[in-house]
Amino acid sequence: MSRFKWLSFLSNFPRPKMRKQPRLDYRNKIIMAPMVRVGTLPMRLLALEMGADIVYTEELVDLKLIKSLRRPNPALNTIDFVDPSDGTIVFRTCSRETSRVVLQLGTSDAARALAVGKLVQNDIAGLDINMGCPKEFSIKGGMGAALLSDPEKAAHILRTLTTHLDIPITCKIRILPDTLETIKLVQELAATGIAAIGIHARTRDERPQHHPHPDVLRAVASAVDIPIIANGGSRSMHTYEDLLKFQEECGADSVMVARAAQLNVSIFRKQGILPIDEVICKYLKLCVDYDNAPHNSKYCVQSILKELQETPRGKRFLQCQTLQQICEIWGLGDYCRRKQQELKEHGNGGRANVILTECLAKRQKLERSEDLADEYEGVICRNMAFLRSTYPSDTQLPKMVLYVLAGKLGKQAPSYETHQCDKLFRSICSYDGQRFSSSFWEKNKKQAEQGAALVALLQLGHLNEKTLLENGSLIS
User: Residue 395 burial by CB count (10 A; 0-12/13-18/19+): exposed, middle or buried?
Assistant: First the structure.
């Protein structure tokens, strides 16, 4: 888009009213760092509950946010920024975090960054520009650590934002191989008027297994006046006291935590770490309360469980496809059902039954096709997921049970017709003059057939609906 078009685009944003809340102060703060797929609303709220002073969102890319629509969600009491192309939530926030949430932005263009800033500034406490991410996606787009190689562009982006927005602007960088060059870079960025700068104490090419360099951060902190936020010490962080120790080693004004918080967000508690099951329960309740995407909730729980995913309970968890199923494992099934019904009554459509959201648009396209409509006309459908871990032996699998039942009753064996959409499958089970199917799309043909057989067994009265609801197979 040309510069003229960008200026025209920006003119559509009215000058926001002055914010009533105090300007965010970055000194003497314990902060949850930006983490991809982790820093969504439930985890941010839990971090604040545990004692964090400031929470950062996961990195959100400017182009994705620019095209989103801001929508108040009265059912959840949230503000949602929605992708109009598929209805997915790009960014969700609420009043519980407004004064303490910082949105981290992935950008390589000052005009785009400003457009995002004007769109979101009334719903956040601060805006941070990612200048440290070494991932290939960021580098190729000229974002993240790529900006470390272009200080002039980095400074221009920051100066544009500090000049035109009412909220404090920060950036997050990595150290350079040379300490003096790092100091020079930080001084150039500080001169743009930013409120603070987060520094990961490793270079662009170093990874978590490498030791951080707190001595470099100490040298930088003594050379500038703005707050320095130390990051990169998770290897040695196991308790709240460890956070303060790393901050002191770096001579920093504040400390920012990523991996240690991802493993157990109760590291922010001054009173001590909580057991992981208690943390997971607290997290899942927030996921239910704020209708968090199941795939995102599952990813965060996996990060907490680590090697416990290999236990029987962990393996059952890995089979889960919905938030309801995950909650059943931690004794929150009734809470999830009750809350989702309550939210539905208040007008929240919800995404509780959606997994693999990257395939959502393809599913919707397939489901709208006339061919599929014809295929599923007259088919008895239920929201039924096949969870392999709930069946101890092959003889108990739904297809086998239905096959044996047909033999005992002298009826023709059931047959299956399966449809495929890219890597997703849905099957119709034909048995005794009727056709049955699950409304879920499964990862493979076998699971799709088992789901269809489950629907048949339930509708024919050979399975108990309450049992299926309790084990998470059936979503009401």
Answer: exposed
Question: Which of 212, 368, 317 minimizes the C-alpha distance to 360?
Answer: 368
Residue 115 has pLDDT above 80, yes or no: yes
DSSP per-residue codes, 451-468: HHHHHHHHHTTSS-HHHH
pLDDT at 143 over 90: no
User: 279 with 288: CB under 8 angstroms?
Assistant: no
Phi, psi of 103 (to 5 degrees): -90, 125
* Per-residue confidence (pLDDT) for residue 385, from 0 to 100: 84
Q: DSSP states of 297-325 as a string?
A: HHHHHHHHHGGGGGSHHHHHHHT--SHHH
How many CA atoms lie within 13 Å of 7's alpha carbon, on the beta-carbon side? 3
Helices (H), 369-464: 370-375, 398-408, 445-459
In this prediction the pTM is 0.77
Q: In the sheet that 434-438 helps form, which strands lie side by side, from edge to edge?
A: 380-382, 434-438, 424-431, 415-421
How high is the pLDDT of residue 197?
A: 98
281 is catalytic: no
Per-residue pLDDT at 334 exceeds 90: yes
pLDDT at 1: 47
Q: Which is the catalytic residue, given 94, 133, 171, 429?
A: 133
